[in-house]
Write a structure and sequence with these properties.
Blueprint (H helix, E strand, L loop, with lengths): L2 E7 L16 E2 L2 E2 H8 L4 E8 L3 H7 L6 E4 L6 H8 L7 E6 L7 H14 L3 E7 L8 E5 L2 E6 L6 H4 L3 E10 H7 L16 H8 L4 E5 L12 H21 L3 E2 L6 E2 L4 E2 L4 E2 L4 E3 L3 E2 L4 E2 L4 E3 L2 E2 L4 E2 L4 E3 L2 E2 L4 E2 L4 E2 L4 E2 L4 E9 L2 E2 L4 E9 L1 E3 L4 E2 L4 E3 L9 E3 L4 E2 L4 E3 L2 E3 L4 E2 L4 E2 L8 E2 L11 H11 L3
Parallel strand pairs: 1-4, 1-6, 4-5, 7-11, 12-15, 13-16, 14-17, 15-18, 16-19, 17-20, 18-21, 19-22, 20-23, 21-24, 22-25, 23-26, 24-27, 25-27, 26-28, 27-29, 28-30, 29-31, 30-33, 31-34, 32-35, 33-36, 34-37, 35-38, 37-39
Antiparallel strand pairs: 2-3, 6-10, 7-10, 8-9
Bound molecules: uridine-diphosphate-N-acetylglucosamine and calcium ion.
The site of calcium ion has 4 residues, from loops.
Length: about 450
């Protein structure tokens, strides 16, 4: 059946108390409205997103999704939002979903569509049974049939007790919408048009109205405030972690692990407590990610170890690499097979070749290091002269003694040796030894004099 979708995303989301439009608030790394778009069944053809407040931001965020936009200039209610979309619609059937419902699953929408067409309904809605229905429209039934939806603000004392609520997801015939929407009357005090009134309009005219109740009532969660945003995040986090566990990933304490929607983790990897995996991150098989680590937009090959309290962003780590504890890899870092970056080492926009090691206290920026290089403790690439960044190029098998400064731009040839404490300002040819320390002076007995003076000035 030809089907179009209308996603409502024009509301301001006043209850969020935010400068960001509500539907762009992220849940597990994805804007809320994206979760709704992801959940739309495959048979949905064109998708229309109704935008209004902060429309530029919403349109920009959804720009790449191939949806159409409909502008609702004034937010005059959910009924008005669908009304302004009417002229754009052409399919005989219209699926309507709110943009603030990130827990909705595609399978539930498929069930709604299936039940709708099987039952030959003119309108169907998705409902949920909640222990605490506060804040939602109540589904009023007579003889089992849905006859109306009554908003929280308008319920009678008896209706308040109804546990079945409207999720805000519907399937309508376009014809019905064309007839019903123009006749909606505004509700005081805000004078809004309620889409929910289409249901009573249809039922009172003998049109067939169907309803499907969610098996998992959490899916019906509408996010109106930050509490609900946090609840939605918790639910999606559990779903994501469960999928990873099912896929063969071990988690010592899943409740403290936060993995965003787009992240992949290979089987036999172990994730310790308090780990954050974000953005477009892919972690291979058999990796170990210890506690308090944050990895964003990075690719880790198999068998990579990341020790405690490390931060990795925009980096690529080949198989068998080891990082941390307390290391920081900034965007543009590439670590080749078996490379090792140890404690208090910062790497930025640099390549460390196979088996190259920077084990302690170093800053490596805008540098290319060959294979099997040993970077001594305290080594620093001086890549910035206050105006521009300069590159450092280190060949294979170079040994850099501790506390070396490499003043870029500078090149060190293969198998060169740099003495500890050197400041390298000129290129070092291959196989050479470079040393720039001040020769040591030794003054006999001078130390003794010092200590005597300290004791009271007596000789
Ligand atoms: C709505 C339903 C309520 C249901 C609940 C489920 C109505 C009148 N009420 O209430 O029965 O239980 O959802 O979560 O429909 N929007 C627009 N333009 C507008 C107003 C809203 O695009 O003029 C959009 C919002 O951006 C939002 C969605 O429609 O994505 C729902 O609006 P919201 O104000 O959150 O409705 P609720 O009060 O939650
Ligand atoms: Ca809502």
């Amino acid at each position: 059946m030809p089907l179009e979708a209308v996603v409502l995303a024009a509301g301001k989301g006043t209850r969020m108390k935010s400068r960001t439009p509500k539907v762009l608030h992220k849940v597990l790394g994805l804007p809320m409205v994206d979760w709704v778009l992801e959940a739309l069944p495959r048979e949905v053809g064109k998708v229309w997103v109704v935008v209004g407040s902060a429309r530029e931001a919403v349109e920009e965020a959804l720009g790449s999704r191939g949806v159409g936009f409909v502008l609702q200039r004034e937010q005059r209610g959910t009924g008005d939002a669908v009304r302004v979309a009417l002229p754009s619609l052409s399919s005989p059937w219209v699926l309507v979903a709110p943009g603030d419902m990130p827990l909705l699953r595609r399978s539930s929408l498929e069930t709604l569509v299936e039940s709708h067409f099987r039952g030959g309904y003119q309108a169907s809605l998705l409902t949920a049974r909640l222990e605490d229905p506060t804040g939602y429209g109540r589904v009023v039934r007579e003889g089992g049939r849905v006859v109306a939806i009554v908003e929280e603000t308008e319920v009678t004392a008896r209706q308040r007790e109804i546990k079945e609520v409207n999720t805000g997801v519907y399937l309508f015939s376009l014809e019905l919408l064309r007839e019903a929407l123009p006749s909606l009357v505004p509700h005081p005090p805000k004078e809004e048009l309620y889409l929910t009134d289409v249901i009573s309009w249809a039922a009172s005219r003998g049109r067939r109205v169907g309803a499907v109740t969610l098996e998992d009532p959490w899916e019906g969660l509408g996010v109106n405030d930050r509490v609900q945003l946090a609840q939605a995040t918790a639910v999606l986090r559990d779903r994501k972690n469960r999928a990873l566990l099912d896929g063969g990933v071990s988690m010592v304490d899943p409740g403290s692990v936060y993995v965003e929607a787009g992240v992949e983790v290979g089987a036999d990897s172990v994730v310790y407590p308090w780990v954050y995996l974000e953005g477009e991150t892919r972690i291979g098989e058999g990796c170990v990610i210890r506690s308090h680590v944050r990895i964003a937009d990075s690719v880790l090959g198999r068998g990579v170890t990341v020790l405690d309290a490390s931060v990795i962003e925009g980096s690529r780590l080949a198989p068998g690499v080891s990082v941390g504890p307390m290391a920081r890899l900034r965007p543009g870092t590439r670590l080749e097979e078996g490379a090792k970056v140890g404690n208090f080492v910062e790497v930025k926009k640099s390549v460390l070749g196979r088996g190259t090691k920077a084990n302690h206290l170093a800053y490596i920026g805008d540098a290319t290091l060959g294979e099997g290089v040993n970077v001594g403790a305290g080594t620093i690439t001086c890549n910035y002269d206050g105006f521009t960044k300069h590159p450092t190029i280190i060949g294979d098998g170079v040994f850099i003694g501790s506390d070396t400064q490499l003043v870029a731009p500078v090149r060190v040839g293969d198998h060169a040796l740099i003495g500890a404490g050197s400041t390298i300002t000129k290129d070092v040819p291959e196989n050479a030894l470079a040393l720039s320390r001040v020769p040591q002076k030794v003054i006999p007995h001078r130390g003794m004099l010092y200590f005597k003076k300290k004791r009271g000035g007596r000789e």
